[in-house]
Amino acid sequence: MTEKQHIEVVVLGAGVSGIYQIKKLIDSGIRATLFEADEDLGGTWYRNRYPGARFDSESYTYGYSFSQELLDEWHWKERFSAQPENLRYLNFVADKFGLREHMRFNSRVTVMKWDEATRLWHLDFEQGESITTRYVITGIGVLSTPTPPRYAGMDEFKGESFHTYWWPKEPVELAGRKVGVIGTGATGIQVISEIADKVGELTVFQRRPNWSTPLNNSLISNEEMAQIRTRYDEIFANCAASPNGFEHVPDYRGFANLTHEQRVEFWDELYAKPGFAILAGNFPEIFLDETANKEISEYVAGRIRQRVQDPVLAEKLIPKDHGFGMQRLPLETKYFEAYNRDNVRLVDISDMPIQNITANGVQTSAEHVDLDVIVYATGFDAITGSFDRMQIQGMNGDSLADKWHQGPSTYLGLFSHGFPNLLMVAGPQSVSGSTNFPRAIEGGVNWATQMLCHAIERGYTRFEAQAEAEQEWGEEVKRAHEKLLARRSQGWFTGYNSNVRGHEQGTVRYQAYFGGGPKYAEIIKRVAAGGYRQIDMS
Ligand SMILES: Cc1cc2nc3c(=O)[nH]c(=O)nc-3n(C[C@H](O)[C@H](O)[C@H](O)COP(=O)(O)OP(=O)(O)OC[C@H]3O[C@@H](n4cnc5c(N)ncnc54)[C@H](O)[C@@H]3O)c2cc1C
After folding, report:
1. How much distance in Å is there from the Cα of 144 to the middle of ligand 1?
2. Would you state the torsion angle of the CA atoms of residues 279, 284, 288, 293, taken in this order, to the nearest 10 degrees?
3. Which of 435, 463, 423 lies closest to 520, judged by CA?
4. pLDDT tens digits, 74-84
5. Cα separation of 106 and 457, whole Å?
6. Closest residue (by CA) to atom 30 of ligand 1?
7. By three-state DSSP, how is residue 524 classified?
8. Are 79 and 218 in contact (CB under 8 A)?
């Protein structure tokens, strides 16, 4: 038997998390190698090349904050930058700091097995290679496992079809063609808005509508960018202080202290503002109190009615099964106006379910829709999907997928008891999933690196979060979640996905921490200051 190559520290995934993680390890004098399943870096922004894919975080709040030089050099051209530019940015970062030489691509880890005797992880790659490593830090993404639907006949379709995550690199001819988009979540809304005026005919297959409000994007001029650069310290301080990691701050005047007219006036302002202002800058009561939520939902419904000419169609586009802000809010650019076009048609598949895909299109219970292109905008096995796709075996051969069968169980979203020497950046039950990702990612990477240095400097070769600490964290995650009206919604916040077995309607999975960025940052800081008492090290 040939001896396996040994790499002391391994990082998995070359998205925003992995790129910063490998940099931080190198800067800390720790030799590490990053393995990425895909053929190049970028993660979310390497994939998702569909028309309309862009940030709904303000670009300058999304970029890394760790290097003044980087902040000085990079010019964001749009307030909400699009996928090609975001990918260029991540490549710019990797090249600037010489990170590529520490990365190996086309390296998907399929199996991770812990060996207690040697205190090593054994990693198997899809391509057949195997290595051993002492420490694994995952940055494998929360929206990196796409979930196409499970319709019969999908392979028989003769035209082009793809999940939005796998949108081809080569331009897809849309002009004059009959295009079907299945799904109206955040991705569907972006793609529909962008292609409505470019295709011959567009058929949107909608099962459940989503709330959506204007992105209000704009270009960033040289002067504006220069101004933003002078404000970076303030921008990142604002993000660190806000629960959601944005510059938008909740309005604490008290929902009930204002009259209905005052609230509507305020919402008119928020509706015209960019990005998540209407969500993150709103009254906190709208997320907690039925009456407040009903009122804002009615307000946003009114906006949809104003924008969609056909009143029957408008009603179909207004969610009736969940209130505003209870699921991840998609932001849009002229989405509702797309339905006023003659070439755009909505097929309500809650009334007329899709029966199968045929060689020439989609067969619903009521009609056959002829199509040249089918776009599956059906989202992701969110948060835990990429963990479940690996066979991860910890102590006594126990499987992580089995442990997380009913939902993830972690300590701080960074560790899972029974799986030693494994750190998860932007992991399940961390605050990343509920906030502006990179802000929490940077905090998570800094913390994980500091903890690892602490262990290595003291000669420890094994660490594991205590079971009681994990249980307490689970209760804290649940407490924060239970306060929100969102606890009753069916989206990835609650682990719902009809295309993933076991994630269909029914069980709530506590996927993300909703206690807010500042509280989370304070908790992990306290754990470090206390000498990591909740982590057994030896
Ligand atoms: C369309 C879209 C728009 C978004 N917009 C925003 C936004 O505006 N603001 C925001 O905060 N967040 C947004 N997000 C969330 C986004 O995922 C995060 O912002 C961020 O990119 C996550 O980075 P990451 O490195 O943690 O994960 P990813 O970017 O998902 O990277 C994970 C990487 O791990 C690799 N990987 C997975 N499994 C394995 C394995 N077994 N072995 C090796 N490699 C593996 C994947 O191939 C991937 O490259 C968006 C997500 C999507 C899909």
Report:
1. 6
2. -50
3. 435
4. 999 999 999 99
5. 32
6. 141
7. helix
8. yes
pLDDT the model gives residue 506: 65
DSSP code at position 3: P
Q: Which of 95, 5, 78, 89 is nearest to 44 (CA)?
A: 89
Distance from the alpha carbon of residue 217 to the mean position of ligand 1, in angstroms: 22
Per-residue confidence band for 1, with pLDDT thresholds at 50, 70 and 90: very low
Task: Please name the residues in contact with 166: beta carbons below 8 A apart, sequence gap of 6 or more.
Answer: 47, 146
Which atom of ligand 1 lies nearest, measured to the CA of 41?
49
Strands 160-163 and 373-376: parallel
Predicted local distance difference test score (pLDDT) of residue 85: 98
For the segment 62-73, the average pLDDT, to the nearest whole number, is 98
Q: Looking at residues 228-249, what average pLDDT do you find? A: 96
Q: Return the best residue to mutate from 55, 125, 144 for the ligand 1 pocket (most ligand atoms within 8 A of CB).
A: 144
537 in Cβ contact with 463 (< 8 Å): yes
Residue 52: both structure tokens together = 């309309």
Say if ligand 1 is within 6 A of residue 436 CB: yes
For 175, phi then psi, to 5°, come to -55, 130
Atom of ligand 1 nearest to the CA of 46: 49
Ligand 1 contacts CB of residue 246 (under 6 A):
no
The reported pLDDT for the residue numbered 41 is 98
Cα torsion through 481, 301, 499, 393, rounded to 10: -20
Q: What is the number of the ligand 1 atom nearest to the C-alpha of 245?
A: 11
- Please count the other Cβ atoms lying within 10 Å of the Cβ belonging to residue 231: 13
Per-residue confidence (pLDDT) for residue 2, from 0 to 100: 59
* Pocket lining: 196 vs ligand 1, CB cutoff 6 Å: no
- The C-alpha atoms of residue 110 and residue 387 are separated, in whole angstroms, by 10
CA-nearest of 10, 272, 290, 271 to 130 is 10
Pocket test for ligand 1, best of 41, 112, 437, 442 (most atoms within 8 A of CB): 437
Q: Are 473 and 411 in contact (CB under 8 A)?
A: yes
The atom number, within ligand 1, closest to the CA of 107 reads: 43
Q: 206 in ligand 1 pocket by Cβ < 6 Å?
A: no
Gap between the Cα atoms of 521 and 531, Å rounded: 16
Provide the mean pLDDT of the chain.
96
Residue 216 neighbours by CB distance under 10 Å: 16
Distance 77 CA to ligand 1 centre (A): 22
Q: What band does 494 get if pLDDT is binned at 50, 70 and 90? A: confident
Burial of 484 (0-12, 13-18, 19+ CB in 10 A): middle
Q: Are strands 361-364 and 368-370 parallel, antiparallel or unpaired?
A: antiparallel
